Amino acid sequence: MWQYGPGFLWEEIEQAWWEYETVGRPDAEQFGLTVTDRGQQVWLREPREVIRSSRR
């Protein structure tokens, strides 16, 4: 596998897969999105379990 460009896409894919496995391989129905006038939040299983971006 070769990577080229400003980012390391394969490492991002591996990180996303690891995080998916860590939380128990949830189905799409277990994710939610809350949108307010102050922003949006993606969550897993319930609104208080907000998923934070690992990107800096």
Explain what you see.
By secondary structure, the protein is an alpha+beta fold. 25% of the residues lie in helices and 21% in strands. It has one helix spanning 9-22, and strands at 31-36, 39-44. Strands 1-2 form a two-stranded antiparallel sheet. A hairpin with a 2-residue loop joins strand 1 and strand 2 (39-44). The longest helix has 14 residues, at 9-22. The radius of gyration is 14 Å and the shape is flat. The model has no long low-confidence stretch (mean pLDDT 89).
The structural class is: alpha+beta
- Give the strand line-up of the largest sheet: 1-2
Rg of Cα set = 14 Å
How many strand segments? 2
Q: What is the number of helices?
A: 1
Proportion of strand residues = 15-25%
Determine the N-to-C terminus distance. Answer: 25 Å
In short:
This protein has 56 residues and is α+β, with helices and mostly antiparallel strands.
What's the topology here?
Elements (H helix, E strand, L loop, with lengths): L8 H14 L8 E6 L2 E6 L12
Antiparallel strand pairs: 1-2
Question: What labels would you give this structure?
Answer:
single chain; 56 residues; alpha+beta; 2 strands; flat
